[in-house]
Specification:
- The structure is a single chain.
- It contains four helices and ten strands.
- It has about 210 residues and is α+β, with helices and mostly antiparallel strands.
- The chain has a single domain, classed as Double Stranded RNA Binding Domain (2-Layer Sandwich), CATH 3.30.160.670.
- Helix 2 runs parallel beside helix 4.
- The radius of gyration is 25 Å and the shape is elongated.
- It starts with a helix and ends with a strand.
């Protein structure tokens, strides 16, 4: 393989990786966007909550695992989980998923395989090629890439206030991995980041990944 072919192939791969890193964070971290709405009541520290499963979530093993991850992240609220049949002021429910989406990212065209050449003449005083002052450069094109929209929504209702919804937060992280279980601890942490925050607030959070 020629030096030009090796360089252009590297650039073709690197362009996709670079574009994906801008969408989903670099390899050493995970980024998520959090959208939240809240009318959080005052003086709730020490109040009890109960995690409620929907009909489809009941006795569902992934739900049980995700619920434990949310329990581990809920400390910022000041709430305490109610035991067994003990009364609880707040009811907490979850919704989650990772639908696949197609996004377009830029990559360098390989002129040997894609048949597309561009030419660039350097400004006066620049380095000229042996082709009469013209340098061949690869072109850029958009390519489709499948990304998973890993999502967790947490909703909290206040039974002391007519079961009114007082907190709803959704964390979304785009990436090429469909392993929602591996990403869920970070999404659970994100929905309570800076709790309770401002009503209608959208924030970006980033967490380091284990090396």
């Amino acid at each position: 393989m020629s030096v030009w072919s090796r360089w252009s192939s590297t650039m073709r791969f690197g362009g996709v990786v670079l574009a994906l890193s801008l969408l989903s964070g670099c390899a050493s971290s995970l980024s998520a966007q959090v959208t939240r709405y809240q009318q959080w009541p005052a003086n709730t520290a020490g109040e009890h909550y109960r995690l409620i499963a929907s009909d489809t979530q009941r006795n569902n093993l992934p739900f049980l695992a995700y619920a434990d991850m949310v329990r581990a992240a809920i400390g910022a609220t000041g709430l305490v989980e109610a035991q067994s049949t003990s009364p609880a002021r707040f009811e907490l429910s979850l919704d989650y998923g990772n639908p696949v989406e197609q996004r377009w990212v830029q990559r360098q065209v390989d002129p040997y395989y894609d048949g597309a050449f561009g030419f660039y003449r350097p400004p006066f005083g620049g380095r000229f090629s042996s082709w009469g002052g013209w340098m061949m450069v690869p072109q850029v094109q958009d390519v489709p890439v499948n990304l998973y929209k890993n999502t967790l929504t947490v909703m909290i209702r206040d039974r002391d206030d007519h079961n009114k919804e007082v907190y709803r937060a959704t964390a979304v992280s785009l990436g090429q991995s469909d392993n929602l279980t591996a990403i869920m601890p970070y999404l659970a942490r994100a929905v309570f980041d800076q709790f309770p925050g401002r009503n209608g607030q959208v924030i970006e959070v980033q967490y380091d990944l284990p090396r």
